[in-house]
Design a protein that fits this description.
Blueprint lengths: L19 H17 L24 E5 L5 E5 L2 E5 L4 H8 L12 E5 L5 H13 L5 E3 L6
Parallel strand pairs: 1-4, 4-5
Antiparallel strand pairs: 1-2, 2-3
Helix pairs in contact: 2-3
Length: 143
């Protein structure tokens, strides 16, 4: 038998990336996502709708927040200016029944639409800290 002589190298190196395992993994991931995607339900948030209340509150304490973030408190015929730091104390001094648990006098906040949302939230937080039971927002309804 003649001897097999090799010229140069016996094996050549392959300079290419083997794509078959990569394609296999991608196809498996594609199938997994296609099966699980219909099972995922998007979370829906049920937001309240603005409408008219069935009965308007009688003689509420009104907190008016103007364009320049000045605060005015009105109750029946009494009206007085206030500030963010003492608004809750002023409301409780003006009408002590706002803390009453069963038949509390409602507090309605009316704010100009051009002021920062943070101002309204700070007023609400101050009222909650002072244990005011019924706090609401006044909005303009579109008919």
């Amino acid at each position: 038998m003649p001897a097999v002589t090799s010229r140069g190298r016996g094996r050549r190196t392959i300079n290419e990336i083997n794509m078959v395992p990569f394609i296999d993994v991608m196809l498996v991931l594609l199938i997994i996502f296609m099966v699980t995607a219909p099972l995922i339900t998007p979370s829906m948030i049920a937001l309240p709708k603005v409408g008219r209340a069935p009965v308007q509150p009688q003689n509420p304490v009104q907190i008016l927040i103007g364009k320049d973030e000045t605060i005015q408190i009105k109750f029946k015929t009494d009206s007085r200016p206030s500030s963010l730091q003492v608004v809750a104390d002023d409301v409780v001094k003006l009408e002590p029944l706002v803390r009453h648990a069963t038949d509390a006098t409602p507090v309605v906040i009316s704010a100009d639409k051009s002021i920062k949302y943070e101002t309204v939230v700070n007023v609400m937080a101050a009222l909650r800290k002072a244990e005011v039971v019924r706090v609401g927002l006044s909005v303009q309804t579109s008919n």
